[in-house]
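Quick start: read one record
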Amino acid sequence: MRFDAALGSVAVAGGRGIFGRLSFPARRVLRWFWYVLVSVAFALLIVGGCAPPDELSDADCRADLTCWSDKHWTTAANECDPLVVRSTPGRYRWDIDIGVPMFDKVAWHDEAAGTILYEGHRIKFKSASDKWRQMRYRCVYDPDARKISLLRVKPFSEPPKDTCGTRHWYTGFMPNNVVAEISH
């Protein structure tokens, strides 16, 4: 073994392939790179060997709420957004960040007809007294007609607390305090 002062490294006599001729930091980097390369190749081999999930037929997807609502979520959001905005009495502000969906809940409105109820509370309206009021909206989307068949917007109120202090979602819309209701 000899010390190379110019390179500041230790070289091993007899060599150990390319790793023996490189400096100690370079060997560490090269080994790290090799481990990463082998790990990525192994992961791609495992993931690449799996078959992609089969797409559900329209009839099977329509029977499953998750599949059916996921399939029409984007279109429902694009149709519902302008209707909610048009129902504002004045100024409005969306409270949507990247990665935060417009809708919080999804449910069947009419399972036989395939209509989906999307519900959210990510918008605030400015009241006459210049206070921001969070609102809750419900959009019933009809995938066959490709339009919103019912929209309800009302002030959002926190769900009641139970005796343990946890909150339960209050999903009922009472007829009073409905700001806008559009039915097609």
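The chain is about 30% helix and 30% strand.
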